[in-house]
Automatic annotation (TrEMBL), chain A:
SUPFAM superfamilies found in the cross-reference section: P-loop containing nucleoside triphosphate hydrolases
Ribonucleoprotein recorded as keyword: no
PANTHER family: ALIPHATIC SULFONATES IMPORT ATP-BINDING PROTEIN SSUB, TAURINE IMPORT ATP-BINDING PROTEIN-RELATED
Domain of life: Bacteria
Gene Ontology terms, MF aspect: ATP binding; ATP hydrolysis activity
PROSITE patterns per the UniProt record, alphabetical: ABC_TRANSPORTER_1, ABC_TRANSPORTER_2
Key words of the record: ATP-binding, Nucleotide-binding, Transport
Residue ranges of every copy of the ABC transporter domain listed in the record: 15-247
Record-linked InterPro entries: AAA+_ATPase, ABC_transporter-like_ATP-bd, ABC_transporter-like_CS, ABC_transporter_ATP-bind, P-loop_NTPase
Family the UniProt entry places it in: Belongs to the ABC transporter superfamily.
Keyword Transport included in the entry's annotation: yes
Cross-referenced Pfam families: ABC_tran
Protein name stated in the entry: ABC transporter ATP-binding protein
TrEMBL record, chain B:
Domain ABC transmembrane type-1: 110-298
Membrane topology according to the record: Multi-pass membrane protein
GO terms for cellular component: plasma membrane
Chain positions covered by the region annotation Disordered: 1-24
Name the record gives this protein: ABC transporter permease
């Protein structure tokens, strides 16, 4: 391995993972490997969907790319810089709700801007625009516990967008939504993605969602998670979910997933 | 509830809308009574509970089981209010050549005594809260502060406040200062440990959100951790309020000037059970009232905390 003081990857790569591994509680008797040998290159503006059985380390990978946790092995680079700490350039939308209960919706959305010290009027305007995109302008002055689960998740999306990130990390953001709302949110996400030119790494359990959104689908093995295959999807958007090509892709992804999910279950039963 | 008391609403075509805001029709028709009713009913149950207890006591007295010289029932120790109240004139009592019957009126003397004790509790509680939250946050913020102070704090926290009484007198002599010192010392160590526990319990997700948005350590503490621990800290404060009252009484019994603790001491030395029970009744009332004030504060300050009590009562 070469010296790490230089920048081996061009600043044109949005995210580069090289041999990334994560062992939780390393060095204790509770140590367990969540991720192993992940190599992944994400181009700027690329839409990546991560699929894999529950517990295979998808959330863990997003945490590592966000810089919230340190890698145990390997390295992650973003736009030519080594990822060591979190950065507003890489926004993470968490799997669980993570709104501040003591702030109103618009204050939540503009939290990142207030960290930067922007004046209240500008923050409120930015929050209004971000909330408009998720269709929640009316809820601006509500508190999070007055919202439904799906509305809260949309506020979290608006909060991430307000930061205008270059990489958007989304951990099952629409899992709590009904089918119709999810379809709307997918369309909306594609709009936002096209405008912002951000790279997206999107975790989901829904194969339909992967087919509707992804440039490339990354399929993980059961724990410890490794990349099993990467399936490119070369279809113009908006995509017809009932086209023969979509149908074939769904079948292919379902079969790839089934083997891993079976393995994950067999492993859990053995424990 | 209100639909039952207003049968006209039941047949409304927009019954669903009315069910969404069950209190709206009632408050429109009976604005004041509607709001007073729950308060009155709560006051009613309090009176019922206290009345039951006093009633049993009175019956025991009427049956000659409770000796009025040792356990005077409420109508005796409350009935002789002016008689008892003159003992509250504690400032004058110690002065030579001043009669028991000079000085402020009996009511005035009781009020002065209550205010003196209450102020000590309040000031002590405030100082203890500010100090312990500041130190608790500093312990988690600076590793050096943790290493230097936490072992001592953990070591001293199980020491009974009574053990600090001589220290209070060595340091501050007689007066307000030792009583306030006692409250602070009795609450400080526990509240520091409680603050640390609260900080450790803050949701990781909330902290991580702030981190991904580029918040500095100071911003994370100021904007996430402090608001997140506030509900728990106010609860801790409420739990420690009664402790503060107890400690103040102990401190005052050493002689401070005015104070309920001193009245109890006087009652003991002059063998006056009526005065003891009268003072106990006062202390109970004051503790209850100060808890109520804190509860109000909690509701006002923590507008975002959902009220689960209603759900539990519905079970
Ligand atoms: N903070 C943590 N400390 C210790 N172990 C963790 C932590 N977070 C995750 N793990 C473990 O790492 C493994 C991968 O977890 P992760 O949350 O990344 O899975 P996932 O693929 O996101 O699953 P799901 O689809 O159910 O969300 C699991 O075995 C989990 O128990
Ligand atoms: Mg996950």
């Amino acid at each position: 391995m070469a010296s790490r003081s230089t920048k081996p990857f061009s600043s044109r790569d949005a995210v580069v993972c090289r041999g990334v591994g994560k062992t939780w509680s390393a060095g204790t008797d509770r140590a367990h490997v969540a991720l192993r040998d992940v190599d992944l290159d994400v181009a700027p503006g690329e839409f990546i969907v991560l699929l894999g059985p529950s517990g295979c380390g998808k959330s863990t990978l997003l945490y590592l790319i966000a810089g919230l946790e340190d890698t145990s092995d390997g390295e992650i680079w973003a736009f030519g810089d080594r990822v060591a700490t979190p950065s507003p350039d890489r926004s993470l939308i968490f799997q669980e709700t993570s709104l501040f209960p003591w702030l109103t919706v618009w204050q939540n959305v503009s939290f990142g801007l207030s960290i930067r010290g922007e004046p209240a009027a500008a923050r409120k305007e930015a929050a209004r625009q971000a909330l408009q995109r998720v269709g929640l302008v009316e809820a601006m002055d509500k508190r999070p516990d007055e919202l439904s689960g799906g509305m809260r998740q949309r506020v979290a999306v608006a909060r991430a967008l307000a930061m205008r990130p270059k990489v958007l990390l989304m951990d099952e953001p629409f899992a709590a939504l009904d089918v119709q709302t999810r379809a709307k949110m997918q369309d909306f996400l594609l709009d936002v993605w096209r405008d912002s030119e951000a790279s997206v790494l999107f975790v989901t359990h829904h194969i339909d969602e992967a087919v509707a959104l992804a440039d490339r689908v990354v399929i993980f093995t059961a724990r410890p998670g490794r990349i099993k295959t990467i399936v490119p999807i070369d279809m113009p958007r908006p995509r017809d979910p009932f086209s023969a090509q979509s149908e074939a892709l769904r079948k292919e992804l379902t079969e790839l997933m089934r083997a891993e999910v079976d393995r994950a279950f067999a492993e859990q039963e053995a424990v | 509830m209100s639909t039952a008391s207003h049968p006209a609403d039941a047949g409304d075509t927009d019954g669903a809308a009315a069910a969404g805001t069950p209190n709206a029709p009632a408050t429109r028709r009976l604005p004041l009574a509607g709001r007073l009713a729950p308060v009155l009913s709560r006051l009613g149950t309090t009176l019922l509970s206290v009345g039951l207890f006093c009633g049993i006591w009175e019956i025991l007295w009427a049956l000659d089981i409770a000796d009025p010289k040792l356990l005077p029932p409420p109508h005796i120790f409350l009935g002789s209010f002016p008689e008892q109240a003159k003992f509250f004139n504690t400032a004058q009592r110690w002065q030579i050549g001043v009669g028991l019957n000079t000085g402020p009126s009996p009511q005035g003397a009781v009020l002065i005594t209550i205010l003196a004790s209450g102020a000590r509790v309040l000031v002590g509680l405030l100082i203890a809260a500010v100090l312990s939250i500041a130190i608790g946050v500093a312990i988690r913020y600076f590793a050096a502060v943790e290493k230097l102070t936490l072992p001592t704090i953990t070591l001293l926290s199980p020491v009974s406040p009574i053990a600090w009484l001589p220290v209070a007198i060595f340091l501050f002599g007689i007066g307000n200062a030792p009583a306030i010192f006692m409250v602070v010392i009795a609450l400080f160590f526990h509240m520091v440990l409680a603050t640390i526990a609260q900080i450790d319990g803050v949701s990781r997700n909330l902290i991580n959100v702030a981190r991904t948005m580029g918040a500095s350590k100071r911003q994370i503490y100021g904007r996430v951790i402090v608001p997140a621990i506030l509900p728990g800290m106010l609860m801790v404060l409420r739990l420690n309020l009664f402790g503060a009252w107890m400690v103040v009484l102990v401190a005052e019994s050493t002689g401070v000037g005015y104070g309920l603790g001193q009245v109890i001491m006087l009652a003991r030395n002059t063998f006056n059970p009526s005065l003891v029970f009268f003072t106990i009744a006062l202390i109970g009332l004051l503790g209850f009232l100060s808890d109520w004030v804190l509860r109000l504060l909690q509701k006002k300050l923590l507008y975002w905390v959902p009220q689960t009590a209603g759900v539990l009562r519905g079970l």
